[in-house]
Amino acid sequence: MQVTLIGPPYSGKTTLFQAIAEAGGSKVDVSRADQRHLAVVKVPDERVRWLTERYKSAKTVPAELTFLDLPGLDLSDQTARAHWRSNWTAVRDSDLIVMVVRSFTSPSVPAYRSRLDAISDAEELLAEMLLTDMEQVANRIVRLEAQLKKPADRQETQRELDLMKRLGEALENEKPIRDVVKSQAEEKAVKSFAFLSLKPHVVVLNCDENEADLPTDPIAGATALRLSAKIEEEMAQLSEADRAEFLGELNLAALARDRLIQACYRKLNLISMFTVDYRECRAWPLPAGTDSLTAADQIHSDIARGFIRGEIMAYEDVFAAGGDEKAVKAAGKFRLEGKQYVIKDGDIVHFRFNI
Length: 355
Ligand SMILES: Nc1nc2c(ncn2[C@@H]2O[C@H](COP(=O)(O)OP(=O)(O)OP(=O)(O)O)[C@@H](O)[C@H]2O)c(=O)[nH]1
Ligand SMILES: [Mg+2]
Description:
By secondary structure, the chain is α/β, with parallel strands linked by helices.
């Protein structure tokens, strides 16, 4: 799963990206602002840490997300805007969009459009995404209308044309495609276009240090998070111990970057299933609603092929019992589930199989 950071110039995308990338243990070269940056990041999860310790697992494999940092999108300059257009392809290839908008004050960093207005910046980005989708829809309509003149597949062409016209109308009324596509058939019909306004998005308000960590109302209908990219980046450079001290001084419970990565994970509708023994503790990212058989197949196709039962315990129950599996069993909280059981976030599983 890929998360892409977009935003106006100098909003702090790369600064935030560096802090995020550090969570993956990867050093990234961000020396060129006009380049794309990519990092695979470990999703922070206290449960994985606890399970590794409890089962003395030799290896830990957390869930991962890929983050992509794109150059700033300057909509105030038509040449820059046109130049940036090729980047939309990368955004289309991603699963989630994080819009980073500036709300920090700094005399040394030029303000986008010579003002500081994070909400307008986010709205402007959204409007640009709708416009980009609209162009795509309009092009498709022209093609379909031409196709309609030919005898083949008229019914299907007409059906798609009707759908595209409906999408076009919604976009003109400033509605995202997400709000229009209802049925599974329609979802399938639009999937290959990878429309921007069909993707989930999160807004990050990059604000001054003293305003970080405050709760925020949704912006333009999207989940919003406040943080200071600068603090995050500085903290990412520190050792674990220094970081804890620094967090304490700033009265912060956790790194905002961790909250952001977790928010992305949730927004992608992913849950974590765990497998754990002395060899390995692993978090498996699964789309919410995944059944046991599909989950087993993720681990190994043989396990799905010879599936017998899933032995399931909830992390919460194991944690509450201090890791004493016998106590969990005695309390009737150890379950055997079939192929259709829907895996829940935090389920610790062991699949029995026979091939
Ligand atoms: N004071 C302050 N400065 C910041 C913050 N975040 C970023 N900056 C500064 O703003 C400038 C731009 O930061 P970048 O992270 O490069 O911004 P960007 O969005 O990647 O910029 P482009 O990729 O060129 O669009 C740098 O000088 C940063 O040090 C912040 O939270 N507070
Ligand atoms: Mg940048």
